[in-house]
Design a protein that fits this description.
heterodimer, A: 386 residues, alpha/beta, Glucose Oxidase, domain 1, Rossmann fold, 2 domains, ten-stranded mixed β-sheet, 23% helix, B: 511 residues, alpha+beta, seven-stranded antiparallel β-sheet, 18 strands, 37% helix, globular
Chain lengths: 386, 511
């Protein structure tokens, strides 16, 4: 199966297709994680994006039922140097190409992903078309140019759950993955950490929430009521939450005025608030700041973030194309974490209100666990309030 | 936390002569350390008996001692150097000298096992204390915890990490109970206090176990045997970790061994980064690596931690850790561009990771984890032809005399380049038109070798096994069969299968 990846600047890469016979438009970006492709595929934040993996061997350990971050893959298309012809893992249930095919998503392999990545670094993220169907080069380029792009477009409404729900009332989705220990025998898969009681009710805004955020919240004793992205503050307050969580999600935060409005109302109400990624950007906007689009974004599992208060450096998992502008923030909001690679804002803390947020992903999945303690910080913040 | 201002001179112990098991990797790390510390303005004193390393070139240290690396010798050097400092007007190692650089300190973690053992001996005999010489980079207690197998094992269990299950028995009943607890064969039986460990062995089933346990108990003068689960055939992994004084920890490089457990890492073909772990498993290994370096107490610098993973259940056990710059560090440095030895030296004199610039980018700090878009392969170089009396079977004792490394965009490219780099006359796995010598037989390059020859060469790890995977595939053996004989991960075998298929494709084109 032939495949092409066409960029808005007229570049066309010819490779071999895998996954479904399909054509997709999206913003072409790259991710530098060497593991975790399954989590990346299923992260709703990638809605509208054609993701290129810079690591050349992808698909080595297949796909399993556990390592998903939502109910389906959300990337528009997947670009890799080489898809593994076999899967090698005791956890694998299917191969990467089978998985993409089942979900109707196209993939391309055998192209020079390093050249593509270098182009994206220099030119910035670009609009593109990935097709495994018979689309002529010129038409693919034209379709890439005609695509609306991410800026100003509300992708959240496509990935938010349409109705509110309680996360994992049976406590069978939230236990952390654990390996068998010592002389245990039998099926190693259902081995899990036990959960504490869920004694703190909170509301989590779903802008495209990753399962591992919900798992982490539950693991820290939160009983989580998930609400759709467009839920007004009054409806949130009706649940009488002890705190509010703002999730990650796709696209441009400036395209979500309703979210910034609702969060502004909740800030007024004085509830403890914790935000991650898009949730952090929405908080930034609600607190009076502004956001801007990064040239090629931060997507990978090795971004160093410095906690300015403690001096500690966390290696973080990141996936964002927009950022909060540091100089746009009012004086009551402190930038308490920065990215050591480009000095951009990675964390905010309100000086007088119980509000904090981070641009990166403390839930990891994929990526390092250095920032997991932020969930305990949120718990402490909520408990201190009463 | 910037550079320490109390240190005047740093004594670095080198690795001495090159021997099998300790080759030039420690000249690399020691030289890096010398350069880094001189750059920081410290007076560098080096002891290394090897004239052939660039490390003992005069420009790398302020004073170089070409002397035997023994505790006695190093003590004499310490005495001499303290006198020299006083001659220079420095209040050497005196408590009242704190307002300016005045200390002579010892950096033992960059010269391999020789340097570490010498430093430990100096610590135990009280020499360091007597002369007020501080050990930097790692403390004696940490080295002890990392190096003593029993202490290390207990420590790992106490922090909730998994280790190979074992137990000590004095009777047959106790032996059976331990075997029951481990729950699977094979089991390794080692009688206590027998000469050269005689009477031990591997039991593959209950009958063999009963027999070996009984014999071991009889042979041991104290009627005691150690029973341990065997990890033969498990997947082997390594992590290169760095830690600074503020407890920032980073993984520099992850490594997967092509050869499963049972072959010494120095004799294994190794691959960076890890290829066959999911992110969930990799992160558990990363967390465990940090837990190990913290528990052992390596305060600054690098460590190498080795893991074994059961391919059937994912169970992950810690095998060992090296609380120092190790053989894999040189490889990891070249593989990622992160100069481990140089950074370890800077961390030892007080810097934090985020205060050190990354040499490659020059813009970002050293507190990051290298991520690569290529594959690195290391292949050991053997010289059994020069040691006809040596047993060419690979086991837990290192036998290679060197190694080659290659970088490529895929595993296939790297492996081929690496095999070509070995200078054994081959251009890769084969297909280069050159003959194959197996014992007294000579075969043509594209001959199909007899299956029994292939099976023998696959079953027992040996220097040529990688080439026999090609022979096996060419003889029509499946990846599954080869995996059954070698326990090499099917992912690697499939990559080799693709090379062999491409060889056929090329051969067909020529005709």
């Amino acid at each position: 199966m032939k495949a092409i990846l066409a960029l808005e600047d007229g570049t066309v890469y010819h490779g071999t297709g895998f996954g479904a016979r399909a054509t997709a438009c999206g913003e072409v970006c790259f991710n530098t994680s060497m593991t975790g492709y399954q989590e990346i595929l299923t992260d709703p934040s990638y809605k509208g994006q054609i993701v290129t993996m810079t690591y050349p061997h992808i698909g080595n350990y297949g796909i399993n039922a556990l390592d998903v971050e939502s109910w389906r893959p959300h990337v528009a298309g997947f670009v890799v140097r080489e898809v593994s012809p076999v899967v090698s893992s005791w956890r694998a249930e299917q191969s990467l190409p089978e998985y993409l095919e089942r979900h109707g998503l196209p993939g391309i392999q055998g192209i020079d992903t390093r050249a593509l990545t270098k182009k994206l670094r220099v030119r910035g993220a670009m609009k593109g078309v990935l097709t495994t169907e018979e689309v002529p080069d010129a038409e693919a380029v034209a379709r890439a140019q005609a695509w609306h792009g991410l800026v100003g477009f509300d992708y959240v409404k496509e990935v938010t759950h349409p109705a509110p729900f309680q996360w994992d009332q049976q406590d069978n989705l939230s236990p952390d993955f654990r390996l068998v220990f010592g002389p245990a025998t039998g099926d190693p898969r259902p081995t899990h950490h036990p959960l504490p009681p869920a004694d703190i009710p909170i509301v989590a805004y779903d802008f495209g929430i990753k399962y591992n955020i919900l798992r982490r919240l539950r693991q820290h004793g939160f009983q989580v009521q998930v609400v759709p992205a467009a839920t007004p503050a009054a409806d949130v307050l009706r649940h009488r939450p002890a705190g509010v969580f703002l999730s990650n999600g796709p696209g441009d935060p400036a395209a979500l005025p309703y979210a910034a409005r609702a969060v502004g109302d909740l800030i007024e109400h004085g509830l403890p608030i914790f935000g991650i990624c898009l949730g952090h950007q929405v908080l930034g906007l609600a607190l009076g700041g502004s956001t801007f689009k990064l040239k090629f974004g931060h997507r990978g599992a090795n971004q160093p973030v410095k906690d300015l208060a403690s001096g500690r450096v966390e290696i973080t998992s990141q996936n964002h194309g927009f950022a909060v502008a540091a100089d746009s923030l009012p004086s009551e909001v402190a930038v308490d974490r920065i990215n050591l690679n480009d000095q951009t804002v990675e964390g905010l803390r309100h000086r007088s209100k119980p509000i904090f947020c981070v641009q990166y992903h403390p839930e990891a999945s994929p990526g390092p666990h250095d920032s997991t303690p932020l969930f305990a910080d949120f718990r402490e913040l909520v408990l201190r309030r009463g | 936390m910037p550079k320490r201002t109390d240190i005047h001179s740093v004594l670095i112990i080198g690795a001495g002569p090159i021997i099998i098991g300790q080759a030039c990797e420690f000249d690399y790390s020691g030289t890096q350390a010398c350069k880094a510390l001189k750059e920081e303005g410290f007076r560098v004193i080096l002891v290394n008996s090897n004239p052939a390393t660039i490390m003992t070139d005069p420009e790398f240290a302020d004073r170089t001692y070409l002397e035997p690396i023994t505790p006695e010798c190093v003590e004499k050097i310490i005495v001499r150097e303290l006198a020299e400092l006083r001659r220079l007007g420095v209040p050497a190692n005196e408590p009242n000298g704190a307002d300016r650089p005045h200390k002579l300190v010892l950096l033992p973690t960059l010269g391999g096992q020789t340097a570490l053992n010498t430093a430990m001996a100096l610590g135990r005999s009280g020499v360091l204390e007597r002369h007020g010489v501080e050990m930097i980079g790692a403390n004696a207690a940490a080295i002890e915890r990392g190096e003593d197998r029993l202490v290390f094992k207990e420590l790992m269990l106490s922090i909730g990490l998994d280790v190979p299950i074992s137990g000590v028995a004095h009777t047959l009943e106790e032996s059976r109970a331990i075997a029951e607890r481990i729950g699977r064969f094979p089991l390794i039986i080692r009688p206590a206090f027998t000469l050269g460990g005689t009477g031990g062995g591997i039991a593959y089933n209950r009958e063999e176990f009963e027999e070996l346990a009984k014999r071991g108990l009889d042979l041991s003068p104290v009627s005691e045997i150690l029973i341990e689960e065997s990890l033969l055939g498990w997947k082997e992994f390594e992590m290169e970790v760095m830690r600074d004084k503020a407890d920032n920890c980073v993984i520099i490089c992850s490594i997967e061994n092509f050869d499963p457990m049972g072959v010494h890492t120095g004799d294994s073909i190794t691959v960076a980064p890890i290829q066959t772990l999911t992110d969930k498993e990799y992160q558990i290994m990363r967390d465990a690596s940090f837990a190990v370096i913290r528990a052992v107490g390596v305060e600054t610098g690098g460590s190498n931690i080795q893991f074994a993973v059961d391919p059937a259940t994912g169970r992950m056990v810690i095998i060992e850790m090296n609380p120092r710059v190790s053989r894999s560090s040189a490889l990891a440095s070249k593989a990622t561009g992160f100069p481990i030895a140089k950074i370890a030296a800077k961390l030892a004199v007080g810097y934090l990771l985020d205060e050190i610039r990354n040499d490659i980018t020059r813009e970002t700090p050293a507190s990051f984890e290298p991520t690569i878009d290529y594959v690195v392969v290391k292949v050991p170089r053997f010289a059994f032809e020069k040691f006809p009396q040596a047993d060419p079977t690979l086991n837990t004792q290192m036998k290679s005399v060197g190694e080659a490394m290659a970088i490529g965009r895929t595993f296939k490219e790297s492996l081929q380049k690496c095999l070509r780099s070995l200078e054994i006359g081959r251009s890769g796995l084969g297909g280069d038109g050159k003959p194959w010598r197996v014992g007294t037989e000579v075969y043509g390059d594209r001959d199909r070798l007899p299956r029994e020859v292939i099976s023998r060469k696959l079953t027992v790890p040996n220097a040529d096994r990688i080439f026999f995977i090609r022979h096996a595939l060419r003889a029509g053996m499946s990846v599954r069969e080869i995996h059954g004989l070698t326990k090499i991960d099917p992912w690697f075998l499939t990559q080799i299968e693709e090379i062999v298929q491409f060889e056929d494709e090329l051969a067909a084109t020529k005709a």
